[in-house]
Amino acid sequence: MSTRRPFLASALALALLVTPGVPPSPPTRVLAQTNAPLQPGQVASRTIGVFGYLPYWELDSTTDAYLPYAVLDTIALFGVAFRTDGSFNTTDAGYRAVTSDLAATIIRHAHAVGDRVIVTFESFNADHNAQVLSGPQAPGTFITNAIALLKQIGADGLNIDIEGLSGTYFDEYGTFVAAVRDAVVAYDPAAQVSVATNSSTSGAKMAAAAVANGADRVFLMGYGYRSAGSDPVGSIDPLLTTSGTQNLTWSLDTYAANGVPAQKLILGLPLYGRQWPTVTPALRSARQSTAAYGGGGPIFVKDLPDAATRMSVGFDPLEQAVVLTGWDAADATWTQIYYDDAATLAPKAQLALRRGLAGVGLWALGFDRGRPGYWNVLASLHRGLEVSRIAVAPASTRSLSVTVTIGWKSAGHAVTGVRLSNDATRWSAWRRAAAAIPWTLPASPDALRTIYVQVRDASGAVSTIRPVDVVLDRHGPSMTTLTLAWSASNAKWVSTFRATDLSGVTAYQFCYRIGTGVWRTLERSPTGTMVRIGTAKSARIAIEVRARDAVGLWGSWRRVATP
Fold it and tell me: In 3D, which of 362, 351, 354, 381 has the Cα closest to residue 248?
């Protein structure tokens, strides 16, 4: 066993992999039923659903005040584990939380605004799952107990979270979902049955089996793409990846290819991140792989403020993640944390909207306490708030000062503010919304730069982020090719030339002289890259060429001469 101190404080590792029994237990007083399930006319109509798991260890006296009921449409109380015979252990912390007075209050307040509250039933062991699904009595016992619990608390349906299921049992899984669905509808015709499935092909196949057997919703667990032993490190919920696979976009494509309808799919996103020891501070660095360092550990978003004060803040534009990087002097290693803030969560939530999904999901409610912005992003999905057009002038510039022109639309409140960023991490202050905004680029090396824009409405909801590119070019073109050779077929000297530039080459200037004569300008052309000079083969010729770029800068002259 290593003598090094743990890489991640144990408090941060609380049950992010839904390990039962680790977090503290909630109050245990159980009330008689005081709630009834929502009737069809009472269910709130949202532009897009927001589904949030509420873990039992996040249920306390402050939870009701924290919950953004007006943004959510479904709260999944997490959760109740079931035995191989289908029975429940009523002394488990999860069961006691679901049946507590705290849960009853949340159900009552959720119902007041039209939000569904459902119960999650979970099983995470392959052998355990096999016994449940293959046993002659277990499914029936489970269904009887589950319906009794829904009636007891007035829940609006249930969520089945079976993980680690062998493909051998996918058919039995579908049959199980069908039986559960029949029983739930008999209890409450307006209730919903949902399932949680992983982000890989096996999850897509489970989802397809569930939908084919009546599941109303599928919660795609769009996280866990990287784990403790991942190498290189990076986002646990990447929007895209260099490989083109194992990312949110790829998972949605995989689900679609397996016949899972978009309108039944919820894209689950994490309110936690991961921390690893890394070899370098570079983006997506190699992980420290020696046993002395161990692997990476999960970290709640709400625990990040302290970490952020000790680490530099970066941004992964491909995977869309915030990257915290710091030097761990005690362990003599770099460390990196990858997570979503509101700005990087936004394009992932917008992905669900663009794909026509049923909603966005969160694992889990409470993990974000004290960290602003997430719920404004999700609220914007309901209101159709977005940056509808964006441009920058000039599109190529040698000045750091540009003008960003934006347009927006909102189906709800008026747009009141706009903010900009050069890296999607460090933002300007909110300023009054205007069609044209002056902006300053960072004084960095010449490059294709990206400006990020976000708008806010009168209610405080914020749009997803729209990027726009601008070329910062403060140097003239560089000549890459310049030749001079005699062409027997033309009986002329022929020069070929070419230049390159970040903003693009728009013109060339070609000069020559024969012997010691005066320099003459033969051609100044935006397209010509070849010149023929009609003189004797024996003549001594010198030529010079330079190029101009799209921002009006001329490059240096380059010369070549005959021997």
Answer: 351
Encoded tokens for 365 = 């409610």
| Residue carrying the six token digits 């507590």 | 100
> What residues form DSSP beta bridges with 77?
54, 119
- Tokens representing 188? 């409450």
Strand order in 447-457's β-sheet? 396-397, 466-472, 447-457, 415-421, 431-432
Q: Which domains does the chain have, with CATH numbers?
A: 10-363 (3.20.20.80), 384-472 (2.60.40.10), 478-561 (2.60.40.10)
Closest by CA to 512, choosing from 557, 479, 545, 536, is 545
What would the pLDDT profile of 519-547 be if each residue is shown by its tens digit? 998 767 766 788 888 889 999 999 999 99
Structure tokens at 251: 């998972």
Residue 271 to residue 304: CA distance in whole angstroms:
11
| CA angle, 168 then 157 then 254, to 5° | 45
DSSP string, 273-323: EEEEEESSSSTTPPB--STTT---EEEEGGGHHHHHHTSEEEEETTTTEEE
- Residues 366, 315: Cα–Cα separation, whole Å: 24
**Considering the entire predicted model, what is its pTM?**
0.73
DSSP annotation string for 451-494? EEEEEEETTS-BPPPEEEEEEE--S--EEEEEEEEEETTTTEEE
Structure confidence by residue, pLDDT tens digits, 37-77: 998 888 887 778 999 999 999 999 999 999 999 899 999 99
The separation between the first and the last C-alpha atoms of the chain, rounded to the nearest angstrom, is 74
Using alpha carbons, select from 394, 390, 422 the residue that is nearest to residue 406.
390
Cβ within 8 Å of residue 551, ≥6 positions away: 394, 396, 397, 398, 473, 503
